[in-house]
């Protein structure tokens, strides 16, 4: 057996995980926004591009998730039960959110 098959590959110490990189970016962005709010006006176009990209990916992502969920459920009766449960859950959570 080769060595790569028996042992997990270790990441170098100078390359943090994606979660750590996101948290570092969040903190650095917050500090820069607090210390130099005028810099935010200089990069407004990047912010708008990012938000529009996020908005454009939502509909296909939701659609594909629903299609894969229905296809994976198999029987139509099972899909109907799952749909009713999802609708009831949505109504309960939405009503609770209105009261908060």
Compact overview of the structure:
The protein is mainly α. 81% of the residues lie in helices and 0% in strands.
What does this entry look like structurally?
The chain starts with a helix and ends with a helix. The model has no long low-confidence stretch (mean pLDDT 86). The protein has one domain. It is mainly α. It has helices at 3-6, 18-35, 38-42, 44-73, 76-99. The chain has 5 helices and no strands.
Task: Kindly list the characteristics that best describe this protein.
extended, 5 helices, 100 residues, 0% strand, mainly alpha
Number of separate structural domains: 1
Outline: extended
Number of strands: 0
Encode the helix/strand succession as letters: HHHHH
Instruction: Please give the largest β-sheet.
Output: none
Helices, by number, come to 5
Topology at a glance:
Blueprint: H1 3-6, H2 18-35, H3 38-42, H4 44-73, H5 76-99
């Amino acid at each position: 057996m080769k060595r790569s098959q028996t042992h997990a590959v270790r990441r170098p110490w100078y390359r943090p995980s994606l979660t750590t990189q996101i948290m570092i970016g969040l903190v650095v962005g917050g500090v820069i926004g607090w210390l130099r709010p005028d810099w935010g006006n200089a990069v407004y176009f990047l912010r708008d591009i990012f938000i529009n990209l996020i908005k454009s990916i939502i509909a296909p992502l939701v659609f594909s998730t629903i299609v894969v969920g229905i296809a994976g459920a198999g029987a139509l009766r099972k899909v109907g039960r799952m749909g009713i449960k999802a609708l009831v859950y949505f109504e309960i959570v939405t009503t609770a959110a209105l009261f908060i």
